[in-house]
Write a structure and sequence with these properties.
Elements: H1 3-21, E1 24-27, E2 33-39, E3 50-56, E4 61-69, H2 73-91, E5 101-107, E6 114-120, H3 127-136, H4 143-161, E7 177-179, E8 185-187, H5 192-198, H6 232-247, H7 260-268, H8 273-282, H9 293-297, H10 308-318, H11 327-334, E9 340-344, E10 352-355, H12 361-373, E11 416-425, E12 432-440, E13 445-452, H13 458-467, H14 476-492, E14 499-501
Antiparallel strand pairs: 1-2, 2-3, 3-4, 4-6, 5-6, 7-8, 9-10, 11-12, 11-14, 12-13
Length: about 500
């Protein structure tokens, strides 16, 4: 065989292997999620039998298909209500620095019993992998990057711990923290506590003794497993992660276990006294003396007075639904590049002028995108975040999968960022035709049409859109108010051509 024939044969082999991995093994009952043969690693989560790559056919993105096998169908049934409660709560967890939990369903077909749930796919790899690559290239950790990572992780932990009741992660390691190519940090395995604490004896695999995994033993606080989980165990694990992030790797000296001595030596090697103090405060043996996630955000090594630019960016993102498309681009285009945007005056010396030409629209767009993605959180100002305990009255309960019948209607979780409506009287004059255009936060657009009567309630119309999963429940009141204003103007005066609200 010639060299070219060998190359062709090798390419064909790779193509066949790729096609084999992309083979669809199973579909969700609704047909949206398609499980592939290729398996992925998204952190060490006890109880997860398999984690496979899957396709979200609605969004056109890759996701992770996770499966938990139960050893006994009767035991599965006894845990069913508790499972539903826990998984429903997880579906309400929404934070830019936490891996998204999309969907779950229960499967009791034939003799097997299992839970399947779909999570966001973190394609860029774990923080541990990134640290290993950095060390391999003989580089040291940048302090600014370390601070930015710590802030994002604490932002997520503060959110979880502020929920009612608090959500304890319980498995925070550098393997369950993921980093994206743009520097965005996300923590995964938030559902870990569900498997370990709620029904460990019912699941295939050694879940009960996962703490015995020697490679990650140093992340567990001394009190872990001795009593009910508390938030302080996450702070201890976070402290070990921050130390590992600072030194790139805690040397185990050839042992499988990272000893207390190795952790102490790594902490002593830190040059920055504030970073050293920060990490040591997290890993105190007395759990009661460890700071909270919120307190750590105010530590001297992390806390800073946010710039006006960052505050304005968060304000812009939070109220973006009130602005039309490309408003930022249109506004900046009208500015005179030589116009003075701001001026700082000094009595004893010349002042400083900042012109519009000093600001790059492209850099501004990228900064806004980073803020929106969660790279620069404003957690210093947020307290008392709550998470709904129960579903909305509009959300239908998920039934156990017994037959290949269609899955109940899903709830919409995406936010509406823009609304436009057009109202026109019909020929008969007793009703009007409503055209509603909704733009979602992922840039998806939905156009809905219906006839309305003067007696129709805007609240009922919005609630119906929630029921049929066209909008999220959070947007119900906003849309109802928007429709109420548009309908009142329409019925009270001349035909309303168009209304809009972002």
């Amino acid at each position: 065989m010639t060299m070219s024939e060998e190359n062709i044969s090798g390419c064909r082999g790779k193509e066949e292997e790729s096609e084999d991995e992309s083979e669809i093994l199973e579909e969700s009952p609704c047909g949206r999620w398609q499980k592939r043969k290729e398996q992925v690693s998204q952190g060490n989560v006890p109880g997860i039998e398999t984690a496979s790559l899957a396709m979200d056919t609605e969004e056109g993105v890759e996701v992770v298909w996770n499966e938990v096998q139960f050893s006994d169908k009767k035991v599965f049934k006894s845990h069913e209500d508790r499972m539903r409660e826990m998984f429903e709560s997880l579906m309400h967890v929404d934070h830019p620095n936490i891996v998204k939990f999309h969907k779950y369903w229960l499967d009791t077909r034939e003799s097997r019993a299992r839970v399947i749930f779909i999570t966001e796919y973190m394609s860029s790899g774990s923080l541990k992998q990134f640290l290993k690559k950095t060390k391999k290239n003989h580089k040291t950790m940048n302090v600014k990057a370390w601070k930015r990572w710590c802030t994002q992780i604490l932002s997520a932990l503060s959110y979880l711990h502020s929920c009612h009741p608090p959500i304890v992660h319980g498995n925070l390691t550098c393997d369950t923290i993921f980093i994206q190519h743009n520097g965005l940090i996300k923590i995964g395995s938030v559902w870990h506590r569900l498997f370990v604490n709620v029904f460990p004896e019912a699941i295939y695999g050694n879940v009960q003794h996962h703490r015995d995994d020697e490679t990650n033993q140093h992340y567990f606080a001394p009190e872990y497993g001795l009593a009910e989980d508390v938030c302080s165990i996450d702070i201890f694990a976070f402290g070990i992660c921050t130390l590992e992030m600072a030194v790139l790797e805690i040397q185990a000296n050839g042992d499988t276990v990272v000893s207390k001595e190795a952790i102490t030596n790594a902490a002593q090697s830190l040059d920055d006294p504030l970073i050293k103090e920060f990490t040591q405060s997290c890993v105190r043996m007395d759990a009661k003396k460890r700071p909270t996630a919120h307190d750590l955000l105010f530590h001297r090594v992390l806390f800073e007075v946010h710039s006006l630019k960052l505050l304005a960016a968060h304000c812009f993102i939070n109220y973006q639904y009130q602005l039309h498309d490309n408003c930022l681009e249109e506004k900046t285009r009208t500015f005179d590049p030589n116009g003075v945007m701001a001026e700082i005056k000094h009595g004893d010396r010349p002042g400083v002028e900042i012109k519009y030409s000093n600001v790059s629209p492209l850099e501004l767009d990228k900064f806004l995108e980073d803020v929106k993605n969660g790279i620069y959180p404003l957690m210093n100002f947020q307290r008392g975040l709550t998470m709904p305990r129960t579903l909305s009255i509009f959300q239908e309960r998920m039934e156990t999968v017994k037959t290949p019948s269609p899955e109940p209607q899903e709830m919409e979780t995406r936010k509406v960022v823009q609304m436009h409506c057009n109202l026109e009287f019909t020929e008969e004059g007793t009703r009007s035709h409503l055209s509603l255009l909704l733009k979602m936060d992922d840039k998806l657009q939905r156009q809905l049409n219906c006839d309305v009567l003067p007696t129709d309630s805007s609240k009922d119309l919005a609630s119906e859109l929630v029921h049929f999963a066209f909008i999220s429940e959070e947007d119900c009141d906003k849309l109802a108010g928007f429709l109420e204003d548009a309908l009142c103007k329409h019925w009270a005066g001349p035909p309303l051509e168009e209304s809009s609200l972002a």
